[in-house]
Amino acid sequence: MGVGDIISGLSFGAWIDILKEHPLKSSHYHFWFFTQNKIFPNAKGATRETICAELVEIKKIRNRLFHYEPIWNFDGITNCHMGLSEILSKYERIMRAIRWISEDMHAFLDEGGQQYLLSEQTLLLSNALLKSFKESSMKNNH
């Protein structure tokens, strides 16, 4: 097992834990102090706290997806337009984090990603799901 195996074997949550501030300014603190610009070369002006907060939010999105929960249905969402706006906001948050790590990967994903995400052939929300959402919204408004 090599260093690459250890690094690639860490879970997303483990990376977030490494980024979090530790009260005793342990080796984690020093690790990020010297390596943040190497790991996130395009996050100019972003602090470790900002990067960590963004990754925590992305982890929430990831967890919702992995647990088959809707990523558009949050408190305050009252219509389909708001739900789709929420999805786009999450997509932009993920793409921002990817850009922090690699401009090339961001450009590659963005080239096809926006078109795929917003494509008319791609059903982000099935008609049945939209109908169900509309019905529940109408019930909640009455």
Succession of helices and strands: HHHHHHH
- As a percent range, the share of helical residues equals over 70%
Q: What is the total tally of β strands?
A: 0
The helix/strand class is mainly alpha
Please mark out the parts with pLDDT under 50 across 5 or more consecutive residues, or reply none.
120-125
Termini gap: 61 Å
> Helix tally?
7
Strand content: under 5%
Number of self-contained structural domains: 1
Main pleated sheet? none
Average residue-wise pLDDT: 77
Features:
142 residues; mainly alpha; 7 helices
Any overview of this molecule?
- It contains 7 helices and no strands.
- With 142 residues, the chain is mainly α.
- Helix content is 70%, strand content 0%.
- The chain has one domain (3-141).
- α2 packs antiparallel against α4 and α5 runs antiparallel to α6 (103-118).
Compact summary:
This protein is an all-alpha fold.
Reconstruct the topology from this structure:
Layout: H1 3-9, H2 12-19, H3 27-39, H4 48-66, H5 80-101, H6 103-118, H7 127-141
